Hints:
heterodimer, A: mainly alpha, 71% helix, disordered N terminus, B: mainly beta, four-stranded antiparallel sheet
Amino acid sequence: MQASEISERTSDPRDAEDAITALYAGHALGLTRLALVLVGDRESAEDVVQEAFLGLHRRYGALRDPANALVYLRSAVLNNARTVLRRRRLPSWFAGAYEPPVWSAEAAALLGAERRAVLKALHQLPRRRREVLVLRYYAELSEEETAQVMGVSRGTVKSTTARALDALGRLLGEHP
Amino acid sequence: MNDDIIARLRDATTAVGDTVHDVPGLRFSAAGMERPEPRRKKSWFVPVVAAASVIAAITAGAVAVRAGTGPQVAAAGPAAVPKFFLVASTGSLSVRGMNGEQVASVPAPSKDEVFWSAQAAEDNRRFYVSTVGPGCQGHFYRLTVDDSGAAQAFDRLPIELSEGTADPLAVSGDGSKLAYAIQPCRATDRTGGLVVADTASGETRTWKAEEGKIFTNVAMSGDGRYVAYQYPNVVRVYGTNTAEGGGRFLLTDPRKTPGPDTSAGGTVIVPAPGDATSVPAGPGVPPIGDTTASAPPSGDGTSVPAPSSGGFTLESAVPAKPDAQGYGTGEGPSRDMATPASPSPPGRTTRVVPPSPGAPGAASEPPSGPEAVPAEPAVPTASATVAVDPRTGEAPGPGKSGTTPIPSGRVEMAPDSPDVYLIDTTVGGEDLGTSRKITLSSEAVGGNGGLQGYRLNADGSRIIASLGRVVLTVNGTKEKVEPSTAAIVRFDASDGRLLETVYKDEKGGMRLLAVDGASERFIVRRGDEIAAVTASGYQVLTHDDHTYPSVTW
Lengths: 176, 553
């Protein structure tokens, strides 16, 4: 795409809004679910997704290919979720209050002990391993798509996935 | 090994994701994009975006098929995730949010015309209700609510209901068609019918039952093509013992050989009331004095045996309408055995089962004869046959007026017949012979229990059913469901093969009341709990104290 095309597209903000509106209608629910799996509470998940769309709106004109918008959104969700989780490690007065994760015993969600155990184990994994598992097996992204979203190579996705599964299995007592 | 880990991971993350059914709208402003409403203080995380006016707003109508943001995310579909459920009591319709709070209420059309059976279109915004009025003349109505649940319209549909009660009621996904069974009102009329009606034109198509038969448990596929129905299960009173501490009698399927296994100690097996419940006018049911009773579409009604020298009492929490007596016929709101073989409409009544001639102390020998099967010999009590007339819920003999105010004991609800009949309504004619019979097994619950209600999915290819055993321990007005394996399952409608167990627990049988348009969320009744069930779990929506409303979403 030429610079002139970018300039032309950004000249009418309503085009961007229409495109983002369509993306929101098509993907906001799925992205919110993805964010929920990552951060654990719905309010934070919705914020994460709103932030992602906000960022897309700001940067839409700079996208070289609108087809990459979804990749951008997924990456933004991942980054924003990291920010949320990092913030939770700060003192509570700074991090603010948030609902307990849906997989915690205090949560109202009906998941069952088995699922709670899996989710707790998932969240004990290092960040990259956790993310790669969620993207590969929850969001059902291919290795290539996962690599794009995470900003790493396909080989890294492959090796990280293998290690993550092994670690998760150990945490769940299925691997020695 | 990893496959198992991956499967568990997918299951758990999907369950978490599925707890989100909708998302807030997105807004653009002249200055860019903004949140619709800041929901809480967030000091620095959220960049502040000034907004002067809203240019556009959308609500995310996307429906994720299962999870994730990949190819599984589908475009918006017509089947809405339920935001509301409807509770149809005789006197009013109550629209409630998922927290159980009422958001709208519609009173019955008149004091003489009461709501009976209700079902919802798959958009979760249109609810269809049948009524019963004076002279057993009922009508159909459609309640339309908006996105906040507020009632927008309450329209009477142009469908003429000839004499009889429309119960149960089923509706196609788009609300264009209703299917219902006609339950005859008059004692002399013992033949039912199956009807499919166009909600716009009022045109109907009727399949008449064989002489002396009625239909029950009617369901319709989302596309309106297939209608499923059943014949009421037949149960038999074969013995009555009145022991210390509790009444004891048994109704059982006469096709089975009575024996020690057919009745757990102290268990009372009664015809299970339907989702709404009462004993249907049982065509083919012998007159009073016979011991065969037609079981209504089962449910977990609260027919409660009362131990006493006076007899058994089944009392409704709601007083009987003086002019609305009759027998219930399935899934309508009335749940108690009723009185009267008259053209009067069904209603909530009190069932009184007086002691039989052979009640306590009167007979030391088990009853005999083809209808009377000896009670368990291990029970060292007097026994006698109680002949319960399914129309009246009463047994003949002296002391009819004797009642006992505090019922207690164990009650087992007879499950529905395992046989479901499916008819393709695109095939012309009025011949029910084209129906396909499907027998549903209870293997998913280890064979312990039976069918506790079913529905069809969108294209009629699947039967969603509740399986289990409903045993209630009753003590006064309190009842408790005995723990046992219960499950919501999917069967292949072509051959009755069990395909999938959607949900399973060990908390006792539950009656399936409604299924959402996506066939993924179910409303069940377990004891006094009206609950939502999904693959992720069981959540109580509200409680019902023996009024047995028709509940749907």
